[in-house]
Design brief:
By secondary structure, the chain is of the alpha+beta class. Helix content is 16%, strand content 52%. It has two helices and ten strands. Strands 1, 2, 3, 4, 5, 6, 7, 8, 9 and 10 form a ten-stranded antiparallel β-sheet that branches. A hairpin with a 2-residue loop joins strand 3 and strand 4. Keywords: Signal. This is YceI family protein. It comes from Aquirufa novilacunae. InterPro entries: Lipid/polyisoprenoid-bd_YceI, TTHA0802/YceI-like_sf.
Amino acid sequence: MKSVKVVIATLALGLITFAGVAAPKVVNVNKSASSIAWLAKKVTGEHNGTVGISAGALNVNGNKLIGGNFTIDLKTIKALDITDPGYNQKFIGHITSGDFFEIEKFPTASFVITKVAGNQVTGNLTVKGITKSITFPAEIAVKGGKVTAKANITIDRTDFNIKYGSKKFFDSIGDKAIYDDFALTVSLVSE
């Protein structure tokens, strides 16, 4: 009889412990509160702007981010530093063309988190149908089921077959060269 009471007590303790553990859950990315800023440099200057997030979901377990994804709507890309409307339109037309992001064929890019270790995030970035694994540090907070995450990410555009103006492919380009690395500042907020 004593062993039956011990088994029942152990099962009851296990159920209480299990009930107190938060189950993993998925929270949607708040598209209007989240943002992506970009910065691209060339020998003679730089350009900066924004691009929108069209969808996203983050996986949390208790107060930890454990996974997730988001989709970048390349049709929303904007240049903020070019104030002349005609030149701005021409610039956006060029970077959305086949020389750069080829948005008619590839209207979105995406990022899927594969691992979160402390403040290091690893995931698969897909641009122009090409997927590469990248790792970067991020500031991540999960409070009351709400997630905020911010990261500065440097990407080599040539990894995604964006070769226009790259010295890797055009040696004699001189001061018309565009640097291969571009920077993204990603800020995600869940709903």
